[in-house]
Amino acid sequence: MTTPVKRDGEVGGGTPLLEARDLTVNHGQLRAVDAISLRVYPGEVYAMIGANGAGKSTLLRTIAGLHQPAAGAVLLDGQDLTRVRPERRARQGIALVPEGRRLFGSLSVEENLKVGTAYARKGPWTIDRVYETFTWMKDRRNQRTAQLSGGEQQTVAIGRALVANPRVLLLDELSLGLAPVIVQRIYGMLPQILATGLTVLLVEQDVSQALRVASRLQCLLEGRTTLEGTPADVTAEQVEAAYFGLTGAAAVLGEGSES
Amino acid sequence: MAWVNAIVQGVLTGGLYALFACGLSLMFGVMKVVNLAHGDLAVVAGYVGVGVITVTNIPVLWSVVIVVPVMAVIGYFLQRTLIQSALNRGVLTTLIVTLGLSMVIENALLQFFTANSRGIGAGMTLVTGSFSLGSQVELPYLLLVIFAVAVAVLLGLQWFLSRSSYGRLVRAVADDQEAAQLSGADYRHVFGIAAALALGTVALGGMAYSMYSTLDPTAGTDTILLFAFVAVVIGGLGSLWGTLVGGIVLGIAQQIGAQINISDELLAGYLVFLLVLVLRPQGLVSRRAQS
């Protein structure tokens, strides 16, 4: 449907814009994320894929500052942000579109976007630009977000993050609870968003969507990395095995491992 | 005519009760804190007012200009320190902590200022003067002024919350703290601002009460906090204008009760309170955003 976004020239060189070093995060007794490292370079779309409970959302939330890691570090443009509070990280250019949208329910669509601009950095995104990109939104800007469909809410959540003009956009499970057509439409908008110079780290259960837009991917299973590479490097079988944790068993189970 | 007068007095006292209640409602609406020291802090404001007037001899109205900002600053720091650290341990902890604060304040006031009651003399014309409507209906100047102040405070709060950009942030934080953090808002600061507004408004309530009646160290819980609660519940939890509606309903009930028998004043107020709880537990003005 859309051409994959790749900026090969920029990948692999210089300082990563966003880096996680050996991040380990515990939820009580459970180790949700186990020594995960990643480097996202400017202009990249980095995809974290994995099944439910693999630790993807926890990883994004830790990068955004909502969880404190037990070990490891989060760096933005080489600067250590591990001890920095989430609102400070947001102001420095890390914007998370959280799982489940998390719009402000008693605020209108436009008010939600205005909250996004409250501590915004300078940049190309304004509320008007969001209205130009998602044309339906302007007519419904005075409605409560509860009156919107799931896909529309997701778009408002993306808009709210965009108007902050982040350096890195973290997208947590855009496809969650949405019809496949809507998911395709939202992912179809990504290239247009990326054209403004954004860097994206996304987390996704829907592997096909992730592979379509990603320039680099990592597969998580039970908090650990099971596969890393570019979409061109990895085969569908490798992804499947990494996703479900079938190493030797993959061959035996064969077709049975389709979800 | 005596009944009409009772109703008119009730409506006007409702303004005073709204001043007691709107800060309580605001803090609950924004950070889910039920501040049990709310009334005691109003008493503190009254005592600070008495102190300021005694020491500096400035006019009563000017003392308000000093006391309200002082209480607002105290509110901000109380929120950022004591109440925030209680909130970090869970919403229920704030009940225990603010109850403790209430006891500390009451006993400190008893210790330092004795149990004698005090009041602010706002000047004879303001306190005793009134408009007469017909032969029996009296509109006391002081209650009229307090009512007007209450309406102005509610209008101001409403404007701040619904029109200003910081008010929008306050509402966003009230909806979802974490999502507001992701947009760069420090919810602890927003909570502090809400507490500052709450204590500023209840400082007005405490000052008004010390002019209308007299203050003693226990008035904070046995009058101000109690009436504030009743007004909030009658009006509807989380609704600003509901505090005025609730205050007016409480005021009218008390005045009518007093008209029947002077000792029934408080009882009548609480009966209406119970009636509302049974028949319309969400309050007379239900909250704007339910979802």
Features:
heterodimer; A: 259 residues; alpha/beta; Rossmann fold; six-stranded mixed sheet; globular; disordered N terminus; B: 291 residues; mainly alpha; ABC transporter involved in vitamin B12 uptake, BtuC
Name the pair of protein chains with the most residues at their interface, and give those residue counts.
Answer: A-B, 30 and 21 residues
Cα-atom radius of gyration of chain A:
18 Å
Strand content of chain A: 15-25%
* CATH homologous superfamily identity of the domain at 18-104 and 166-253 in chain A: P-loop containing nucleotide triphosphate hydrolases
Protein structure class of chain B:
mainly alpha
Structural class of chain A comes to alpha/beta
- CATH topology (fold) name of the domain at 18-104 and 166-253 in chain A: Rossmann fold
Oligomer: heterodimer
For the record, the CATH architecture of chain B stands as: Orthogonal Bundle
Structure notes:
The complex is a heterodimer of chains A (259) and B (291). Chain A has a domain of 175 residues: Rossmann fold, CATH 3.40.50.300. Helix content of chain A is 33%, strand content 24%. Chain A contains ten helices and ten strands. In chain A, the strands form two sheets. Chain A has a six-stranded mixed sheet, with helices on both faces. In chain A, a hairpin with a 2-residue loop joins β9 and β10. The two termini of chain A are 23 Å apart. The N terminus and C terminus of chain A are likely disordered. Chain B has one domain: ABC transporter involved in vitamin B12 uptake, BtuC (Orthogonal Bundle), CATH 1.10.3470. Chain B contains twelve helices and two strands; from the N terminus they run αααααββααααααα. In chain B, β1 and β2 form a beta hairpin. Chain B is globular and about 60 Å long. The termini of chain B are far apart. At the A-B interface, α2 and α3 of A face α7 and α8 of B.
